[in-house]
């Protein structure tokens, strides 16, 4: 293995294994030190858990659609190329040197969406709990669907991003630097998003203290993301199982480990949930409509150009 490959492997182990484990252990020790009077019991808001699962399912598939669409459109607008968009992939016909560069436009699009959603979360324009939760998951999926591809692209010239890197004639050192920067961005991004997630609590007691914050993230992020994996599979079949299952699992895990392990570390977050009834009808309808679009329209393929 090359020096760059070793550096990326070590960085991956640090970011995805050692770092979250260290944070989780520190949180456990902090909880033991600060254990005092019994914290007030806060009931599990099952409706919020279900809403979060529906919105994550919607966000994951919307971001995946954006990624594939922006892999297709630049090729379709290039003379000599035509491209077909499927529910879980895309293909192109024809020859043009720019085709390899355009294999990186999907990642660029998802990162732009993530940044736009983060900007909206920072503003006070969106106040609804449901819509803010959707923005959290859109930002999450946009970032954590893209950043791992930068790492893979540095290691594999046959991957989408790897093709774009090779077109740009990036040397090994530059590829390694990009991969390490992508890995380094994952923890602070996940911790920023968990802060936005904690703001959705409708009572201060739900996030008051190390244990309360950890439980809140478990109920509103960890359990919903696990619940969402099965419906996400329905969007992606048929295809190879590594694409059907492994990709959604990786996207869910790489940020979630930091959100869950680091929830205790986020402090001084006001509970801004409005306590209004949480909607389930429109998120469920949106997921169903998107599933029908994927399986009835996109699965046969839509050709551009």
Automatic annotation (TrEMBL):
The chain crosses the membrane at residues 6-28, 48-73, 101-121, 133-156, 176-195, 216-235, 241-259, 280-302. Keywords: Membrane, Transmembrane, Transmembrane helix. This is Uncharacterized protein. It comes from Dokdonella ginsengisoli.
